[in-house]
C-alpha cells in the first residue's frame, strides 16, 4: 500500500492504538478523530454519541477505519450503559457515513468495526460470514452498527465490516483481566467450559485490518478470528501451560451471573466463528493457535 493519509476513530483503544503504531511505522499519515479539542493538525474533533462530525476533517484521506465504541466488557450493562454502547457505535458510524457522502476528495474506503456478537449463540455449530444474525442485545446492536454505514456504501464507498472476536492481549479487552488471574494461579474455566471462544491475536487483528485496507477488491463482512476456535476449557488449559501456573478454580455460572449481570450470557455463551472470507482472500495468520496467541501477548 502506497503511503497515504488514513483517518482512524477509536485511536486510543486497544486495537486502534496498535493500528496507528503500525500505520505510522510504515510512513502513513494518520488522522485521529478525537472527542477532545484537537491538540495538533493530526487530530479532528467529533462526537460519536451525538453523531457530530465536520466532513472537512476527512478531506484528503484515502480511507477511514472506524473502531470507536464504548467498551463492551468495561462494566455491568445497566440500561444507561447499554445506550452508551449503542449510541457510540451506531450514531458514530452514521455520522461518518454521512460525511463520506459529501466529500469529493474524501475517503473511498471505510473499514468499519463490528463484532462476532452479530451471530449470537452458535453452540457447537461453526459459522462463517454467510450465517444469519442471532437474537439479543449484541446481535441487534451489530446489525444496526453495520446498517448505519449504508449511506457510504450506497454512495460508492468501498465498505468493509470487521467482525472481531476476543482479542488476545495483556493491554486491554477480556484477556487483560485474565492474565493477572492466571499469573496469580487463580485462573480457571468459566461455567462448564464447553462454550467456544473465537479469539484472535492482537498482531493478527491489526494485520487483518491492514490487509482489508489494502485490497480494493474486498468489501462486506469479514470475521476476524483465528481459524480454529477453542472451548473455554481448552483455552484455560493453554493459559496454564504457557504461564506455567496451575488451573484449579472453575468459576460457577451462578457466580458469573451475579457478578456480571446480563453480560454473563456472552461469557457463558458459545460462538464458534471461523474466518472463511479472510482466509479465501489470502490472509495468513502469524499466531493461529491459542498457545501461539497467548505467547504473543
Q: How many strands? A: 12
Broad structural category:
alpha/beta
Q: In sequence order, what are the helices and strands, one letter per element?
A: EHEEEEHEHHEEHEEHEEHHHHH
How would you state the average pLDDT, rounded?
A: 90
How many domains? The number is 1
CATH topology: Rossmann fold
CATH architecture grouping: 3-Layer(aba) Sandwich
- N-to-C terminal Cα separation, in Å? 27 Å
Strand percent estimate: 15-25%
Question: Can you offer a commentary on this structure?
Answer:
With 297 residues, the protein is an alpha/beta fold. It contains 11 helices and 12 strands. It has a single domain (5-296), classed as Rossmann fold, CATH 3.40.50.720. The mean pLDDT is 90. An 8-stranded mixed sheet has the order 4-3-2-1-5-6-7-11, sandwiched between helices.
Concise structural overview:
The protein is of the alpha/beta class. Helices cover 38% and strands 17% of the residues. The chain has a single domain (5-296), classed as NAD(P)-binding Rossmann-like Domain (Rossmann fold).
Amino acid at each position: 500500500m502506497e503511503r497515504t493519509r488514513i483517518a482512524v476513530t477509536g485511536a486510543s483503544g486497544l486495537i486502534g492504538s496498535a493500528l496507528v503504531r503500525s500505520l505510522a511505522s510504515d510512513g502513513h499519515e494518520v488522522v485521529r478523530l478525537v472527542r477532545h479539542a484537537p491538540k495538533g493538525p493530526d487530530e479532528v474533533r467529533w462526537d460519536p454519541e451525538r453523531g457530530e462530525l465536520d466532513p472537512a476533517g476527512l478531506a484528503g484521506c484515502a480511507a477511514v477505519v472506524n473502531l470507536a465504541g464504548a467498551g463492551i466488557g468495561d462494566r455491568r450493562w445497566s440500561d444507561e450503559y447499554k445506550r452508551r454502547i449503542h449510541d457510540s457505535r451506531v450514531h458514530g458510524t452514521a455520522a461518518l457515513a454521512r460525511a463520506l457522502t459529501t466529500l469529493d476528495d474524501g475517503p473511498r474506503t471505510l473499514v468499519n468495526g463490528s463484532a462476532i456478537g452479530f451471530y449470537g449463540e452458535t453452540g457447537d455449530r461453526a459459522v462463517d460470514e454467510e450465517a444469519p444474525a442471532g437474537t439479543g442485545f449484541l446481535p441487534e446492536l451489530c446489525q444496526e452498527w453495520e446498517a448505519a454505514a449504508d449511506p457510504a456504501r450506497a454512495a460508492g464507498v468501498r465498505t468493509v465490516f470487521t467482525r472481531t472476536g476476543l482479542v488476545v492481549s495483556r493491554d486491554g479487552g477480556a484477556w487483560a483481566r485474565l492474565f493477572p488471574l492466571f499469573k496469580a494461579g487463580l485462573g480457571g474455566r468459566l461455567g462448564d467450559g464447553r462454550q467456544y471462544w473465537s479469539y484472535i491475536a492482537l498482531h493478527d487483528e491489526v494485520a487483518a485490518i491492514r490487509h482489508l485496507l489494502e485490497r480494493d477488491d474486498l468489501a462486506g463482512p469479514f470475521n476476524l478470528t483465528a481459524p480454529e476456535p477453542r472451548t473455554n476449557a481448552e483455552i484455560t488449559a493453554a493459559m496454564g501451560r504457557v504461564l506455567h501456573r496451575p488451573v484449579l478454580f472453575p468459576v460457577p455460572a451462578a457466580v458469573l451471573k451475579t457478578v456480571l449481570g446480563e453480560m454473563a450470557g456472552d461469557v457463558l455463551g458459545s460462538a464458534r466463528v471461523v474466518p472463511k472470507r479472510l482466509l479465501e482472500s489470502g490472509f495468513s495468520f502469524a499466531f493461529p493457535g491459542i498457545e501461539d496467541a497467548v505467547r504473543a501477548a
